[in-house]
Amino acid sequence: MPLLTLILLLLPGVAFGQNDFVPLVGIPYVDTTAENTTLGDYVNGLYWASISIAAVLAFLKITWAGIKYMLSEVVTDKASAKKDIWGALLGLIIILAAVLMLDTVNPELSNLNALNLVDIGGDVTPDDTRTECQKDQNSAECCLERDGNYVQENNNSYCLNPVVQGEDMFSCEAKPNMVWDSETEECREDSGFVYFDINDVEFDENNIYEIPLELWQSESVDKGLLFNHLSTKCLILGGSDVTFDQGTEKVVYTCEGIPSDEELNTVYLGRYTCATVGEPNCTIDGVCDYSSQTVDCTAAINECTADGGTRYTESAAIVECYQYNP
Fold it and tell me: Taking a C-beta distance cutoff of 8 angstroms, is the pair 317, 295 a contact?
């Protein structure tokens, strides 16, 4: 136990040479799948693993000494068992106290960053003069530098159709995932991603929205979200419902029930009753024949016109009067 305690106390201060250490096996507390795993990470993991092992050994020692104490009737054996228990507890306390002291003074003392050494023989790392694209080709700065369209969607970022330097039309078209931009005469990467921004979706002047079938069927379009978006737009326009028709090349959404300009600018003035001409032919028993009577709406129409009406409809001896204000 004292030897193990000494090793654990001195282990954080040990420094090894270079960072090009190639691990052969994995140990606890170390992510061996990471590309930048260094010798310092391995030794640091060994440091914490050793503490765990020491705690387990102390627990086993205390357990065994407790069993020995309970089963033995000899006084010397009981004294030996008590000595083993106190020794294991003392060793465990020393180990935990050492870790606590290092972490209290400076947490970096228990992280073996000292093993990540650089060559001090005179070679100093020069200033990073790389371009944004050399640093990170997926960054927004690199995308703009390459004249691409940088978009973000659902916590993901995309650089659409960036320019590829040093390619002419023939070499560009001969390569996969490359397209030639005839307008700018530049070679661009074919991102293979169709960006669909639902905020740009609007009905046209005919209350119709068309979307290519291929785009509509792609993963870029949430069909339920698109329908709800168009339904909201239709209600804002005064419509009542949205219908869609799936064709062979495109899907057409139509906002139904939108009032026309004439309907929006027509005011209802009122209802006028037409005059009944002629008397019914009634018998003594009170049965009347109204077939000889006729309806004359002339007076009702004149009254509608006098009140400012410009349009009217006749139905069942009633004149509905309207005024249209274009």
Answer: yes
The neighbouring-strand residues paired with 271 are 320
CA distance 36 to 29: 15
158 membership: H or E segment, kind and range: strand 156-160
Mapped onto helix, strand or coil, the DSSP state of residue 219 is: coil
Q: What is the mean pLDDT of each run of 10 residues along the chain (326 residues)?
A: 47 45 60 64 75 84 84 76 84 82 74 56 58 67 72 65 75 76 76 67 88 81 87 86 88 86 81 85 78 84 89 85 84
Residue 136 is which amino acid? D
In angstroms, the CA 50 to CA 46 distance is 6
Order of strands across the sheet that contains 266-273: 266-273, 318-324, 311-315
Give 3-state DSSP helix, strand, coil % of the chain, rounded to 5: 40, 20, 40
Domain boundaries, the chain: 2-115, 133-189, 198-256, 265-324
Q: What is the pTM of this model?
A: 0.33
Maximum Cα interatomic distance, the chain, rounded to a whole number of Å:
141
Torsion, Cα of 182, 187, 192, 193 (10° steps) = -80
The neighbouring-strand residues paired with 251 are 211, 246
Return the CA Rg of the chain.
45
Under 8 Å CB-to-CB from 250, ≥6 apart: which residues? 210, 211, 212, 213, 216
